[in-house]
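Internal ticket #5521
Category: modeling
Description: The requester needs a full-assembly model to guide mutagenesis choices. All entity lines are attached below as received. Residue total reported by intake: 735.
Assigned to: D.W.
Attached entities:
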Amino acid sequence: MLKRTLLGMLAGATVAFAGVTASAQEELTIFWAEWDPSNYLQELANQYTAETGVVVTVQTTPWPDFQTKAFAEFNAHGDAYDIVVGDSQWLGAGSVGGHYVDLTDFFAKHKLTEAFAPATVQAYAEYPKGGGKYWAIPTEGDATGWAYRKDWFEDPAEKEAFKAKYGYDLDVPKTWAQMRDIAEFFQRPDQKRYGIAIYTDNAYDALVMGFENALFSYGGELGDYSSYKVEGIVNSSEAVAALESYKELYKFTPPNWGKTFFLENNQAITEGLAAMSMNYFAFFPALANKAANPYADVTGYFANPAGPSGKQHAALGGQGMSIVSYSTKQEEAYKFLEWFVREDVQKKWAELGGYTCNAKVLESAEFRQATPYNEAFYQSMFMVKDFWAVPEYAELLTQINNRIYPFVVGGEGSAKDALDGLAADWTATFKKYGRL
Amino acid sequence: MAAMAKLTADSRAAARGWSDLTIRNLFIIPTILFLIVFNIFPLIYSLGYSFTDFRASVSEPANFVGLQNYRELLADPYIWRNFSVTAKYVIVSVGGQMIVGFGVALLLNRAFPFKGLVTTLLLLPMMMSMAVVGLFWKLLYDPSWGIINYALGLGTFDWLSNPDMALYAIAITDIWMWAPFVMLLSLAGLSAVPQHLYEAAAIDRAGRWYTFTRITLPLVAPLLLIALIFRTMEAFKTFDLAFIMSGQPTTEVIAIRLYKMAFQEWQTGRSCALAYIMLIIVLAITNIYVKYLNRVKER
């Protein structure tokens, strides 16, 4: 009797173990930040599950915790995540640190450099830039754009008053100078109306992305990405003018606007506070949703305006999908990526609300007309520029925040001093890591 | 007599079936092991890392760099700015807590209706989560519709976006939250002051100030010093409130800098060195306090 019981238990345990092993083979965990696109990805992944039987879970964490949590897992060589949808700046740390699987052969096999928009391949997949090695599949293309109150802009009385004051028609700004005028025009604290909402949070990359919008359009650069030279570049006269211009816009923001990011900038529109608001395109679906934005019908969108010399660029956001090198299910992860890069799947991804980077889908009239902001997104994705993607990017972020935040928000010192200090900081950092 | 007592205790333990040795093995050894594994070992391990250029985010071995991390940290003007912000915060916040807490305790140290209920209600702030308090006070400070500006008639005065005010705004929140702790300890001290001392002072026609400085304060001082030690240590390590309420460089206390260095920039070796510098400072401050406390007790 005892023997039979023991045999039964052993058989049960074997079946249970086999079950666990089988289910482990058929599950994939994708790690991303907590926002609408991760919900869209889960919906898309459900279709993959329906087709293949492989259960894909998109695990999320709030944005402020995203980088810390992902790298804590990488550093522990943990296999909690099979795929991570990481920020573009992570490419250096992910690849050099050995956390990401090299996808260069995968790219060649599926001709992905041709399938995806060139700027997105370089931004979300390639490290070092121009090195021909790829570590991620461009997943959520993103850039910073602007939402504005169409009804305020189109009000005949406002138009007349604007023309009388500035000598030209009130319309969507084509330059940063026009944007400044419009912000000043709508700055009416007594009516609880304010000119503009910009990023000012210095905790991660918010303020930096906001400043980059001005910097790149003014013709400035963060440095030479191939030689790591920054002196004379990040503190050039164009960069100084751009920082002064960004600080100028801060004067026309709503009160208490010293630590703001995507949430506050969407609130600036949904609460009827500001005439214009900067944000990543990924956050615009909420503004087009009447349930979330009472002004959805009168909210318009435009791409980042040009600088004084006519150059027009936008700061890059967005993420790419990488296989975690510590995952025990890399084969399954590859299969998922093979499915994800298919053009029909990319089309579905766009339909669900994801910002595809697939060139054909992106350029299609269907995509560009699908939402009120897709046209501005399409325009932006061909003029994006990004922050440094080196492994020490977080140190560079801290240093730039330390230098420009006191000037923009605190009004301390001058733009020239701030950027001269930044050039010295970054030069020292690049020397420390043997890049200079 | 002592031997008898020991025998009785031993026989009682034996009657329960647990010897002293068993009790030691069951309770003390696991605790010591726990402390060694989770406190002492990481402490020593991180001390080792503080002399290396180790970065947890890259798969490269740690290189020994001697005192370089310590040298660079102590020469970094930003770190000194963080320390100075922290010092200012500790002085304002802990000073405020001591004054408010002790003041409220003096007011409560008398009989009045619903005294127990009032005391309990006053203790509520320190029972709340720091994150919740931070978010809650952020709303209170809002320049457009926050109740503080409304109540004080300050219009749209910026508390948290103003680099000169943000640290004080956070310190006020900390005072609101932790003054009850000082109040509680002070109340315990005040209630322990023998009544006959006040009666003797009254017979000698001693004034209120004289009674306060010669009787009340000296007798409550040891407990006040204990409150001061705890609050100083806590304020020095403050992270949550400052992190949640403001991003101003003028509010970046040293614990926030440490967090960024360790978990955003992944400068593991250097952040270990900074943690040790902080530890040494806290130990030094505590030591001074403890010495002073012992002197007060001896009086």
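Resolution: model delivered.
Comment from assignee: The interface with chain B takes residues 67-68, 71-72, 74-75, 93, 96-98, 189, 192, 201-204, 254-259, 391-392, 394-395, 397-398, 402, 405-406, 409-410, 412 of chain A (CB under 8 Å).
Ticket closed.
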